[in-house]
Amino acid sequence: MLEEDLEIAVKVVIVGNGAVGKSSMIQRYCKGIFTKDYKKTIGVDFLEKQLNINEDDVRLMLWDTAGQEEFDSLTKSYYRGAQACVLVFSTTDRDSFEAVEKWKSKIEEEVGPNIPIALVQNKIDLLDNAVVEQNEAEGLAKRLKLRFYRTSVKEDLNVEEVFKYLALKHIEKMRKENEQESETATAQPIRQIGLFSTGGSVSKSNNNNGNGLGEGSITLQPSKTRVASKSKNPLSRCKFF
Prior knowledge:
Its main location: membrane. The protein has helices at 22-31, 72-79, 94-98, 100-111, 134-144, 159-187, 224-232, and strands at residues 8-15, 44-53, 56-65, 84-90, 117-122, 147-150, 195-196, 203-205, 217-220. By secondary structure, the protein is an alpha/beta fold. The chain folds into two domains: 8-181, P-loop containing nucleotide triphosphate hydrolases (Rossmann fold), CATH 3.40.50.300; 195-235, no CATH class. Strand 2 and strand 3 (56-65) form a beta hairpin. The radius of gyration is 32 Å and the shape is globular. 27% of the residues are buried. Mean pLDDT is 80; it is low at 195-220 and 223-241.
């Protein structure tokens, strides 16, 4: 694990046009249920799922966002802080496929271009009514450099794989960032502020004199005035037991 007994929390947003199956997807994944009844999401909905990835405990916080334009200003505020994204379009909805790039841009405007994103073509159980060809979808995923999944929430096909992939990508990103931070900390030079010795005068060395001290090393000494003053003090010649 990244840290002993540490749970990794990942905020995942699910975006795409309305009626593509976003709510059904997280209901299937988190609760194992599916309903044919469509209910428009008002604003956002939220579910959680615990899983284990290569001995790392992961808690996925899944934010289901409304796909309708009237909720756009509201839902965009929930994108902030997202660490992964599921971008969904429907096999039977051409407009949802053509809106993929728009949704990708919305996410990246809020959280930056390095967020892991999975592109999902849902409702592949309805291929007889398909309005998006497989090569079109695969070509778009390749052009946008996104991992592509074809799912059926109804048949529970590939739904779990989508979220496992995003959890794994987040863990890999965390490890890489931790390694880079460690390398940066190791590479930082140690600056010598001052060196103290018992003899000589106050001086500044401007070259390496063979004792390992480089340019800018400073040797600090007690002042002669203090030493002289101390020698005149009769107590300084006494021993205390």
